[in-house]
Fold:
Amino acid sequence: MKLLKKRTAILLLSTVFLLTGCMYPSDDQDVSGNVPYAEHIESIQKAVDSYQENSGGLLPIKTTEIETDIYIKYPIEFSKLVPAYTEKIPSTAYEKGGIFQYVLMYVEENPTVKLVDLRVAERIRELNLRKNVNNGYIPHKPEAIGNNVYEIDYEAMGFKEQITVKSPYSDTFLPLIVGGDGNFYVDYSIDLQRLLKEKAVDVKPGDDIRKLLEDISPVLPAYSLPYTVNENNEPVIMDW
Structure:
C-alpha cells in the first residue's frame, strides 16, 4: 500500500485532530517510526504514572470532544511530560515523524499507554476528500453488511481500486466500510475471525470483542465500529 507523503490534516471520524508536519513513510521502508517498540511504550507509561502521582491524579492528555471514539479520546500531551518526566518524545510518535499517536486507555481504573496507527487515519482522509468532492455523496453496495453499514462502491466513487489498510495484528490488508452516519470505518472482522478460531476465548453475543485485539497488541483497533459474535461464534458488527 502506497502511503501519502504530505502535510497531514486528518479527519478523525466525528472529531478533527490537526496533525501537522508529519511525513508518513511507505510500508517498504524499514524505519524506526513504523515499529511499536515496547521500550518506548514502557518509558511513556512510567512518565504518565509519575505525572499522575505528582499532579494529584490528573493525566497528561489533550482535551477532545466528548463523543470521540474511545480509542482516540485521550491523546497524550507530550509537552506535559517532556522533559520533566521523560527525556524526549519517542521517535515512533507522530510528533517526531513516526506513524503512531500515543493515547491512554482505561483512564478511570488503570491509565494505560496504547498506540493508534495514523496511517489508517490517512486512508480515511483520502475517502473523506473524495466524499467532499462528491458533495458528501458516498456510493455503496446496496446490501447492508451490518445494521446500517455498507461496502463502499469504489468505482462509482472515482477510485481505480479498493482502498485497504494494513492490519496491525496480521499480514492482512483490511477493507474500509461506510456507516449510515457518513463516516468511514476499518473492518476488523478478518482478524477477529482468526482470533476466535485460534484462541479459546469466552465471549457471548453482546460482548464487544474488539477487546481481543487490544489484548494482543499495543496498537488499538481505532476507527472501527463495535463487534460482537452471533450464535455461530462469528464476528458481526454490533447494532449501533
